[in-house]
Amino acid sequence: MKITFYGHSCFLVEAGGKRILFDPFISGNPLAHSVDVQSIHCDYILLSHGHVDHCADLETIAENNPGVRIVGIWEIHDRYSQKGFKTHPMNIGGWWTFDFGRVKMVNAVHSSSWPEGSYSGSPAGFVLDTADGVLYFAGDTALTMDMQLIPMTCPKLDLAILPVGSNFTMDYHDALIASDFIQCNRIIGCHFDTFGFLTIDHEAAKSTFASKNKELILMDILSTVSS
Ligand code: NI
Ligand code: MN
Fold this sequence. Notes:
Elements lengths: L1 E4 L5 E5 L2 E5 L21 E3 L5 H4 L2 H7 L4 E5 H9 L3 E5 L4 E4 L2 E7 L16 E7 L2 E5 L11 H5 L5 E5 L8 H10 L4 E5 L11 H9 L4 E3 L6 E3 L1
Parallel strand pairs: 3-4, 4-5, 5-6, 10-11, 11-12, 12-13
Antiparallel strand pairs: 1-2, 1-14, 2-3, 7-8, 8-9, 9-10
């Protein structure tokens, strides 16, 4: 499994022979000006919720990738299928087997609306179970007891992408507790630094994890991590 960071909560995951893009928000991110949205190639787009800092570049990327399938909760499927895109609807707690592996949609504690303000379904996270590894992408969420269900219902995680920026999501202290709940010691942080009120002290965050013999990876934009 190879993971490339495009800033904020946008990651490209290469696993099971496919390219899976999460939460495309790039052109509005002042930290991500080095990322060329037009050159992104993907087979799937998994969208955690409808907030603009997750879906802003989705339609551009989907138009550039005619075979792409958009995966999200029912209301996400509803919106994009009506616009003519290929979609796959899911809902919280369900599994579906795609050609790259299985996906479980899991709970997130957050809000969710489209940029124009209408309801976009519940926010969600995803667990990907692929031949190249098992990954949890939490989406925007608070620390929640439901995370304890993941190791009870999914194969052992190799990596997890958790928000760490506070204000809109959990902070890195809560993410450390989340890493216990999900029984995963290798965490990639997201949803930090993008806007002024998400700024974190990288060394303090990483040492907080290191003190518990866990790893917090704060990726540079366009850098990659392999599991
Ligand atoms: Ni959000
Ligand atoms: Mn967000």
